[in-house]
Amino acid sequence: MTITANLSRRNFLTAGAATMGASLVTPHLALAQSATTELAQPLYGPAPGVAKLNANENPYGPSPSAIAAMSEAIGKGAYYVNSTAETLKEMIAERHGLTKDHIILSSGSSGVLTSLAMMAAEKGNILGSDLFWDTTSRMGTRNSTSEIVRLPKTEDIAVDLDAMYFAVDDTIAMAQICNPNNPTGSIVSPQKLKMFCEKTSQTTMVLVDEAYNEVTDDPEGNSMVPLVKAGHNVVVARTFSKIYGMAGMRVGYMIAAPETAELISAYGMGSYGLNQAGIAGAVASYNDTKFLAYSKSKIIEAREMISEAVRANGLMALPSQTSFMFVNLGSINAEDFRQGMAKENVLIRGIYQDYTNWSRVSMGKIPDVEQYVAAMPKVLEALS
Questions:
Q1: Domain 64-285: which CATH class?
Q2: Whole-number Å distance between alpha carbons of 249 and 241
Q3: In b/e form, how buried is each residue of 44-59, taking b as 16+ CB within 10 angstroms?
């Protein structure tokens, strides 16, 4: 037939569009429906009704002062971070009686912790307790012949400083301690830790990860930063992700001797790894004592609620001065418990390594903690 040949370009396009439109109606509607379903989930943070207690975040942050500063900084997002980062380094250095050369900023403390792990792994193994936050150490040793050397388990799941000291030999390039420990929440006596760091740093570098230091009862007394100032081979990591409530803004730092800081920095991205808004928020909230006190009070309130719920359900948890607790579930599997709580819209952590009956829960907003407390007996009964 000659009908097709006689179609004008306009008619052809019109007819083609109609045909294609008819053929794509169903997929297009399906796509639209799918998009609508996805948009029902919030772009930021947990969905309504979901108690997110699995990442040790401070849901009360960022502080109002940080939000205001970040809002202003976004308007200058076209520019790389420069002077604001120097301001933050000066603030941190001033608090501890150090110089800017002692401070390394990074995208969360995980950035600089990974840089340090990479540097250490080129020289030897990384020593740690059996259970600690080892994510960055695993990153550092991934493409290396070095490995993470773990101490034997202890009955109370504590950090055995004596065992760690005697485990240091010429194969160990760095001893790593999380204080408070993640995921156990336990804290090492500052007097004992100070003695350990002083002795051990004579033969190898000691890293103290103080991500949760500001949440403890005595942040200044628990910190090992004074040892850096005194010239010991000790480095300390801190973050704005926890008490400052800025986990999504990715700001952290490390305090080290200037020559050590320079070596570590060679493994990172420098200021190119920072973002304008995050640094602005960190500067604004660093000395915001009112917000920090409020956050800490809510964390303590939540911790008391969960402690009571643990006791009421015949369980026990390790003592904690942090924004999370490590709960012993007895004969119940921690992954089964995690899945059961998820069905109740409560998100917590599952099994760590082979600690199959230990469950970590974070301190969230009070309504979220109430949701955890209410769901706990129901899930425990179902798994018993």
A1: alpha beta
A2: 8
A3: eebeeebbbbbebbbb
CA-CA distance, 261 to 267, in Å (whole number)?
Answer: 10
Pairing of strands 103-106, 125-128: unpaired
Looking at the chain, which residues constitute the CATH 3.90.1150.10 domain(s)? Answer: 51-59+289-383
Distance CA 222, CA 179 (A): 8
Question: How far apart are the C-alpha atoms of 23 and 20, rounded to whole Å?
Answer: 5
Helix, strand, or coil (residue 128): strand
Identify the CATH number of the domain defined by range 51-59+289-383. 3.90.1150.10
DSSP string, 300-352: HHHHHHHHHHHHHTT-EE---SSSEEEEE-TTS-HHHHHHHHHHTTEE----B
Residue 70's contacts (CB-CB under 8 Å, 6 or more residues apart) are: 62, 249, 277, 278, 280, 281, 284
CB atoms within 10 A of CB 162: 9
Helix, strand and coil content of the chain, in percent to the nearest 5, comes to 50, 15, 35
Residue 70: its H or E element = helix 64-74
CATH 3.40.640.10 occupies which residues in the chain?
64-285
Q: Could you tell me the pTM of the whole model? A: 0.87
Over its length of 384 residues, how does the chain's per-residue pLDDT go in tens digits? 333 334 343 343 344 444 434 443 444 444 344 433 444 578 899 999 999 999 999 999 999 999 999 999 999 999 999 899 999 999 999 999 999 999 999 999 999 999 999 999 999 999 999 999 999 999 989 988 999 999 998 889 999 999 999 999 999 999 999 999 999 999 999 999 999 999 999 999 999 999 999 999 999 999 999 999 999 999 999 999 999 999 999 999 999 999 999 999 999 988 899 999 999 999 999 999 999 999 999 999 999 999 999 999 999 999 999 999 999 999 999 999 999 999 999 999 999 999 999 999 999 999 999 999 999 999 999 999
Tokens 């924004």 appear where? Answer: 323
